[in-house]
Design a protein that fits this description.
Distance between the termini: 27 Å
Strand order of the largest sheet: 1-4-5-6-7-8-9-10
Structural class: alpha/beta
Number of domains: 1
Strand content: 15-25%
CATH topology: TIM Barrel
CATH superfamily: Aldolase class I
CATH class: Alpha Beta
Radius of gyration: 19 Å
């Protein structure tokens, strides 16, 4: 058994499935997004550095060939820069083959870090920040209580890019409901074009009972998107993108149709593929609700 203490459920990006996961923070510092229930049972706090150091030293003896580390929980980028640097330095010293350390961040965390701080973190192998922006629409961001505006998201993201810190951006389709779907798709594409991320992931909304967003849809304040309407929203986003060299994925469990491409190289092919599925509407071409829930 590994000498790692972990509080609560583990949440990590799919691409970090083989990474060593260390909990640098407990919960999420924002924890007010109306669609999210992941960290509601946790009170945010930054873990004691001595505890983390002890876990790193002990784990390095058991897993000396570790190449990738993911720092949990909801937004480990909220950790003060000096403590984060100490953690990164010890990880690099303890795992000789370490390639990168990744973590979740929210847009506000990037605004709190200077470009110089981000450069230092990148030089100490902070290799990627997973940034959930959810939407590019000011209206949607306000309604879901994201706590930032599109301009603030762009400012923080561009600061990271200026520091050459790779960003993996996540957008959550369906948040605007059927009523605002087209507008949200256009605003998403506009914001993503401003950021020009290295990685982009699209997830499809699955409302969680007990959340404000679930109640809004249940009361009829918003109309949920059906499978084909969700696919249409994704298509509108892809069509509006003008990204330089972005790895695109919409293959999360929540997505009705797994999609992947390198934009803009595969953009036309990707659009043609989506169009074909929409036109044919063949039985079984989209994932069932049951499989989305797994």
């Amino acid at each position: 058994m590994l000498p790692i203490k972990y509080e609560g459920d583990v949440f990590r990006p799919p691409s970090e499935a083989k990474s060593l996961i260390l909990q640098a923070t407990i919960g999420c510092s924002h924890n007010r997004c109306t669609f999210c229930s992941m960290y509601k049972r946790k009170k945010f706090r930054i873990r004691n550095l001595d505890e983390i150091k002890k876990e790193i030293v002990l784990t390095s003896r058991m897993l000396p060939h570790t190449r990738r580390v993911f720092l949990a929980d909801g937004n480990a980028l909220a950790v003060p820069t000096e403590q984060l640097l100490e953690t990164l330095e010890l990880l690099d010293q303890s795992f000789p083959g370490l390639e990168r350390v990744s973590l979740y961040g929210n847009p506000y965390d990037l605004l709190e870090k200077s470009r110089a701080e981000l450069i230092k973190l990148r030089e100490h192998k902070m290799g990627i920040v997973y940034l959930g922006i959810e939407s590019g629409s000011a209206r949607v961001l306000e309604r879901i209580k994201k706590g930032v505006t599109p301009d603030q998201i762009a400012e923080g993201a561009l600061r990271a890019k200026a520091a050459k810190v790779p960003l993996s951006i996540t957008v959550l389709n369906g948040l605007a409901g059927l009523e605002g779907s087209d507008e949200d798709a256009r605003e998403n594409a506009l914001l993503l074009n401003r950021i020009d991320p290295e990685y982009l992931g699209l997830l499809s909304l699955m409302t969680v009972p007990g959340t404000t967003t679930h109640r809004q849809f249940s009361r009829g304040e918003l109309t949920p998107l059906g499978p084909w309407e969700m696919l249409k929203e994704i298509r509108m986003i892809v069509e509006g993108l003008n990204l330089s060299n972005c790895t695109f994925r919409a293959n999360h469990a929540s997505n009705y149709l797994p999609l992947k491409a390198v934009l803009s190289r595969d953009q036309e092919k990707l659009l043609a593929s989506i169009d074909q599925v929409i036109e044919q509407k063949a039985p079984g071409s989209l994932k069932s609700e049951y499989l989305r829930g797994l």
